[in-house]
Amino acid sequence: MLHPTGRHFGQRVLAISTLALAITLAVNAEAADVDPVVLTFSTVGDSRQDPVSPDGTTPLATMSGQDKTWLQNTKAWARIQRSIQAQKASLLFFNGDMIMGYGLAGPTKSTSVTDVLASDLMAFYRQYGFWRGMVAPAMETGTYIVPVPGNHEVQSKPLGKKAQVENENAWRANMGDLILDTARFKAIVGVDATHVNVGNNAAFDSLSSDQSQLSYSFDVGDAHFAVVNTDPVGNDNTAPAAWLSSDLSSAKSRGAQHFFVFGHKPAYTYSYAPSGAAPTPAAGLDVKPGPRDNFWNVIETYAATYFCGHEHIFNMMQPKGSAWQVLVGAGGSPFDSKFGDPSATSGLSPNTDRSYSWATVSIRKSGKVDITAYGFSDSYGPTQVLKQATLAH
User: Fold this and answer.
1) pLDDT band, very low/low/confident/very high, at 330 (cuts 50, 70, 90)
2) Is residue 223 situated within a structural domain?
3) Is 362 left (phi over 0), alpha (psi -120 to 50) or beta?
4) How far does CA 29 lie from the centroid of its chain?
């Protein structure tokens, strides 16, 4: 008989370990069969590059000629898309600022070719075209892209960072075919988008411009998805709370069980400043606390989850202790927590404040919803899980 440390003993331990692993895998597989995932979607925002204030990781001098021209963080955004597709997401909600924009996308008065090429109108369409080219492979290989308007799409910076009708029209011209191509949606996702509402809902909130395809909604099974324009003309930094309340009420009355809302600006700014420093100034809907509260009351009333961007950083919070705000605005734009800043080393979340990030959501047959945020560092290290949360049905 061999000593317990001999070959036979080692083989026995290996056999027991192998059996234990097999049992664990079988249990996990059985659990998955009992409560399978019925729909997976992902969400991220803010991939545009900045020609004036690029991040310290990618200074203007080291930015590729391509990204200088098209003003896109191609490397980060392309990797995020590949990762999302590897996670089998059927839908990808992009929460705005896919282009630098920020001009006035109206017709030029000049007939000079040089002036036309240098115009804001040309810049908007050129940048939209590059972004659409980047997402085209995802659309062809199983992931439907759902766009959300951001301030860089609808606002003009020279005109005071205010939304413009011309820019809303340019949004529809460049994103309208995605909002919502129901035949293509079914071909990609495998099920119908139902109760599609993409019309002009401006009257609910007394808005002055056509909001068709800017704030819109649809159902997939018993899940309801609503997109809100957080910078409508004449009412910047304000989500359409009255329309959203009506929309979610209608969805609930027809049996919707899950409510997911997507907008560009956060309802509650994530303050990433280090301990003892002044808090991060209000950057989103909290610029106007009253209308923000009206919006968040709707989110709380329907136990909705709000996904947003605008701040180029990752954070998940429950501002009022119940509903989640999931901030995934680090899709490639210059990080808000600047390269070398104390916030990146001594802030609230030093491991995630400078991570390119996104969230993937799985809805299970039981009604349970799993939210997992993923990210990789500004040095393009391995992808890691940043945070997880489960919503009980």
Assistant:
1) very high
2) yes
3) beta
4) 30
